[in-house]
Design goal:
It is built from 13 helices and 19 strands. By secondary structure, it is an alpha+beta fold.
Length: about 350
């Protein structure tokens, strides 16, 4: 490879634009950024005050003139202007400021949910172009997750992946760089947290925030009863509805598992629905190879056991479930020629 090509490729970027977190991969360097997908904006001036981790610390703790929010909901852009601000900030963080502007504009690959509409796809591409991209390529999150998890998506064999992010769950069967079947439900990590919030309010008369619900989910929740998990407990502080005063209650793992049963059943139903439609030859491959779990939701204790129990198919957790999508976008950049057919859209398709 010539010096000129090495220089121009060095700024190419792969992005997992997630509802909860955004991860960025740079060609030749690997994953260089992992930040919460949160932006804090001053309502008086409309200027961003903080992006990423600093903005997340402000959630629920801002004065009236400052709003800290997530520009993505259910895996897609809900606030275009804020999403563009966030993307521009992250791209500048990893791409820096170069005197050679034409060469510093990166080619960008972005992972998107398989169920997004054409309008939502265009919004993602437009936000990336406005943020400074030279060209933008979109790749379905299940495909990117499968590549990142090391599944042989280019071969003529069936691969099944479940990518559970913050806003959506993607279930897909892949073969020969293509998606044979897919199911996308906008139920994932955020809905699991919301179900915990509602449970605490209904059963314990305690109002808690998103961050507390997330902590409960990490520390004591599980999807399936396993040895030792049911003994886990946690002290939770919040605002008591009846007295209007701060209060602390102790919760146990079984009740949190019960509180999440509804969103978990939606995810399991999406897996079963996909399995019911698989062609026989690919079904045989999946029975042999099993199902791969990726995304932050894969870290929920017992989820792999729950899916195995409900489907009768061995379910594995990817080695780096949180990083699978961004690793897949990076791999598709590094092997652009060989994996060109995995992209679902590009900004230069009409050129």
């Amino acid at each position: 490879m010539s010096f000129w090509n090495r220089f121009s490729l060095s700024s190419d970027i792969g992005i997992d634009l997630g509802t909860a977190n955004t991860l960025v991969y740079v060609s030749g360097k690997g994953i260089v950024l992992e930040e919460p997908s949160v932006v804090a904006v001053d309502q008086n001036t409309q200027e961003p005050l903080a992006v990423g981790e600093e903005a997340k610390k402000m959630l629920g703790r801002t004065p009236g003139n400052v709003v800290a929010s997530r520009p993505l909901r259910d895996g897609v852009i809900a606030d275009f202007q804020t999403a563009e601000t966030m993307l521009k900030y992250f791209i500048q963080q990893v791409n820096g400021k170069s005197l050679w502007k034409p060469l510093s504009r990166p080619r960008i690959v972005i992972g998107i949910p398989s169920g997004v509409t054409d309008v939502e796809q265009r919004a993602v591409m437009e936000a990336a172009l406005q943020a400074g991209a030279r060209d933008v390529y979109l790749i379905g999150e299940p495909v990117a997750a499968a590549i990142g998890a090391g599944l042989p998506v280019a071969e003529a064999t069936g691969n099944m992946i479940i990518d559970i992010g913050g806003g959506s769950t993607e279930v897909a069967v892949l073969s020969l760089q293509g998606t044979v079947l897919s199911e996308s439900v906008r139920v994932a990590g955020d809905e699991l947290s919301d179900s915990i919030i509602q449970y605490m309010k209904k059963v314990h008369n305690l109002v808690i925030g998103e961050r507390t619900a997330e902590e409960i989910k990490i520390r004591v929740s599980s999807a399936y009863p396993t040895e030792g998990d049911d003994e886990l407990s946690m002290e939770v502080r919040g605002l008591h509805l009846l007295s209007g005063l701060p209060r602390m209650v102790t919760i146990k793992a079984p009740e949190i598992r019960e509180s999440m049963s509804e969103p978990l059943s939606v995810i399991v139903d999406a897996v079963k629905s996909t399995l019911e439609r698989i062609p026989p030859e690919l079904a045989s491959d999946i029975v042999d190879r099993g199902i791969m779990l990726a995304g932050g939701g894969a870290l929920l204790r017992g989820l792999d056991t729950l899916i195995s129990h409900e489907t009768g198919i061995v379910t594995h957790i990817a080695p780096d479930p949180l990083q699978c999508v961004v690793l897949g976008t990076g791999n598709s950049l590094e092997n652009f020629q060989q994996l060109e057919r995995v992209f679902t859209g590009s900004s230069n398709s009409n050129r």
